[in-house]
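can u pls check wat happens w/ zinc ion
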Amino acid sequence: METNTKTTPVTAPADDPRTADAVARARAERDRTEQRLFELLRIPSVSTKVEHAGDCRSAAAFLREELADGGLEHAEVLETGGLPCVYADWLHAGDDAPTVLVYGHYDVQPAEPLELWETPPFEPTVRDGSVYGRGTADDKGQLWIHVVALRAMLADGGTLPVNVKVIIEGEEESGSEHLDGFVERERERLACDVVLVSDTHMLSAEQPSIVSSLRGMAYCEVTVQGPAVDLHSGIFGGAVRNPAEALANLIASCKDADGRITIPGFYDDVVEPSADEREAMTKIGFDDDEFRRDAGVSATWGESGWSVYEQIGARPTLEINGMWSGYIEPGAKTVLPASAHAKISMRLVADQDWSRIGDLLERHLQTQAKDMPGVERVTVEPLHGGRPVLVDTTHPAMKAATTALEATFGKPPVFTREGGSIPVVATFTEQLDAPTVLMGFGLPDDCLHSPNEKFSLDQLHKGVETSIAFWHAYADVHDS
Ligand SMILES: [Zn+2]
């Protein structure tokens, strides 16, 4: 028989003597696991609506009680200045054992438009093996995985091979306004070696995956000032530089015909994927045609030399989010505008620094504008920044997540790159100096933020067993 030296055999958590009892308990309690989750799903904890603040607090209290009942200690609802966080821990694995901080969020998106739901959003309903309702996948059903796994581990005097802390916030869907300050103030309580988050999806129920990178963001508003006031385009047009045209030229100067950004220094800090990683990305099964259909375009266009998947996940980009100038109401008005404006976002990849990138954009535009007499002033105002994230796939916790997923799903996970951002990951990197493992159990068709959101119950129960396997897998690699 041929042996593959690259893979070590993994044992299903039900067959591993260290986890078999916990898995048996979790399996025996599946009905309770679902019923208690449905209770949580019935609470309309919509954080963005003030009238649901009481519901958000009810969801926090529910989780605090469940964590305490499940054998965790120091279970508390902690005030943040806005909606509270739930905290609990179990810290008896010893000083040499690593500490995992599990993060989730109990708040949900608004359910509107209600008429598009097949069953009421806050009345969880099971159809075809999935539970439908707001917050099922994002994130109540996914955070529940770890609540249940910890309960199964700690029942009947059970213990954990690692120290575990749990933090569940209530403002994720409304911008996590108070989270940064909270994490900074509670840095000691939240100190950990790694953060574990289940709030993403895997490629499919058959192909587990772990998100290994997220893009960051530098968002700026650009203003080009021309004449002091709007001018008559007949009296002045042809002899005064039009700021809208100047803005168009300035923005055009940021990218070349190959889709490459021409701002000097822009790519200096970009970490290029290795040849191995690029090879692995070709096997992820990203469907260019489906992407094109989703986008509603006849052809894709981006930086040449990179696949569509890489253009989104591994490469930075510059996008115009809005442009305005002059007269934009119905009918004609012959005006030569005094100023022109654009909102520009640059999605960044590791290790680009958003504030430096904003400075580079400003310097580039001002240098270009020097050769444009009649442009009186160019200003670049930073509006928002977020740091890109690249998790080292050889980090012990990533290896543990890989082992746990393979043990449960029977197939090793692939690493995927997301084009978007999860701001809390950058918060944990900055404040706690800990990497984040994004071990999500959602599926691509879960309809997050949309009507008829769902979460597969099979994914829920497999997730619980993966979580049970993870604690031991992490303790193993940490020891070795
Ligand atoms: Zn979420």
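The pocket of zinc ion is lined by residues 105, 138-139, 172, 199 (CB under 6 Å).
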